[in-house]
Amino acid sequence: MDLPIIIHKEALVPLHRQLTNALRDAISCGRLTALQALPSTRELAETLSISRRTVVRSYNDLVSQGYLETKFGGSTFVSTSPPIDPPPQIDTPTGEDSIDTDLLSDFTAELLKTGTESLDFGFFSRLNYCAAPAEMLPVKQWRALLSKQCAITDPSQLGYVVDVFGDSTLRDALAKYLRRSKALQCNAEQVISFSDTKGSLDLISRTLINAGDTVVVEDPGYVYAREMFEAYGANVVAIPIDENGLCVDELKKIPQKVKLLYCTPSHQDPTGAVMSLERRRALLAWAKDNCDFIVEDAFDSDYFFSTAPLPALHAMDDTGRVLYLYSFWKLLFPLTATGYLVVPPSLSPAFRATKQHVNRFFSSIEQLALAEFLNEGHLERHWKATRGELKKRRQALIFALKMAFLDDIAFFGEGAGLHLSVRFTVPKTSEQILECAENAGFPLMPTYIYYAGAFPEREFLVPFSVVPSEDAAQLVERFVEQIKKS
């Protein structure tokens, strides 16, 4: 083990004392931890170009002070309970005073201003980030495909020359999957793969948005997209949502031309509203003269439990202005969160040039495994195998909540996605309701973060996928008991 210790041979301080002080400091600050072995006296002496006698004397001093211990045979290690000195108190500035934003890029300064810490829900991880529960994941098939890819015996098959859009095998598989499952007319040259969807939003922003451009988002809507566009200097306009999705009539009030519109028509995030066919046609008609590009995020659009899915905007567009964004987050996370972006053919060269500098590489093993997973039909089989159980869980939880809260609960959105959007009218604050849910172990997440401005009280998302149908009634009962007690 190499120890980064500096010895000044010209200094007045004896060498053994310099070494003693350096090792004691390393132990006190935690660089060297309890029971960690130190180099032999000969090895350290050679490394530092000092005499072995100097190292022996330093080790002996630290043993006598309780910092080091020795074993039979001469090995030396950090004591199990060294007399750790308290670290020096350093006044660290907090908040806006902690850094001079003039030294940062406009992008990062804007992110700090908008407060990106809001992107982290502390309870997201406990709910598997609202993805399907772990027991439903196709772990066996995924493990087999990963093992198959890792069993490659010829290293030349793992070449380093990779297309910046992603592995061609995966992109071809993605294009075929989109054609058969989403009715998109696209080919592999239009598909860009990412390790997740955030990278694709960054690429879109870098490629299409300049400071001062007008960008439209949904309100409520995906906070990361809104803050990403703001950080790139866009003039972000938030348009309200109703039961049919984005309010197109409100778009007509925007005086300037819109550079980009971001929406989630298949399953609005977070309300669950599905944009009606009439509204989709109205949006595309408005965009022909008033908007350069539409980013269609098909987030959480795999499971429909009541109405049949409608055609994607991308499939309805005849102008080449719709970019299609999606990931396997809701189906396969944490096995994979791979995302992809489908761009119009005319934009492919521009996105390729930008992609050279953004999220260029991720695991080729994972890409090849996912390609085979798609080509062999495992994804469709997984979807069919889980849809029935998820529908049961959804129905059981809705029934239990309606029976328990009666008129004190309202449900929003279509029968799609893996969460319910609800609003309570019980005489409690949002904070009190959330605390009751946590005490009862009931999955609940507030929606305030999704709103660009004012937000409704007592509105929450309920990830029904994590609640087995046989447990729904008892879990809701515990939740109600907590509300009555508080």
- Outline type: globular
Cross-sheet strand order for the largest sheet:
3-10-9-8-7-4-5-6
Number of strands: 14
Distance between the termini: 57 Å
Counting DSSP H or I runs of 4 or more residues, the number of helices is 17
Rg over alpha carbons: 29 Å
CATH homologous superfamily of the largest domain - what is it?
Type I PLP-dependent aspartate aminotransferase-like (Major domain)
Major sheet summary line: 8 strands, mixed
Low-pLDDT residue intervals, each spanning 5 or more residues: 92-96
Tell me about this structure.
- By secondary structure, the protein is of the alpha/beta class.
- The protein has three domains: 15-78, Arc Repressor Mutant, subunit A, CATH 1.10.10; 107-380, Aspartate Aminotransferase, domain 2, CATH 3.40.640; 385-485, Alpha-Beta Complex (Aspartate Aminotransferase, domain 1), CATH 3.90.1150.
- The chain contains 17 helices and 14 strands.
- The protein has an eight-stranded mixed β-sheet, with helices on both faces. It has a four-stranded antiparallel β-sheet with strand order 11-12-14-13, covered by helices on one side. The chain has a two-stranded antiparallel sheet with strand order 1-2.
- A hairpin with a 2-residue loop joins β5 (235-242) and β6 (245-246).
- α7 packs parallel to α8, α7 (197-208) crosses α13 (348-355) and α16 packs across α17.
- The longest helix has 28 residues, at 378-405.
- The protein is globular, with a radius of gyration of 29 Å.
- The two termini are 57 Å apart.
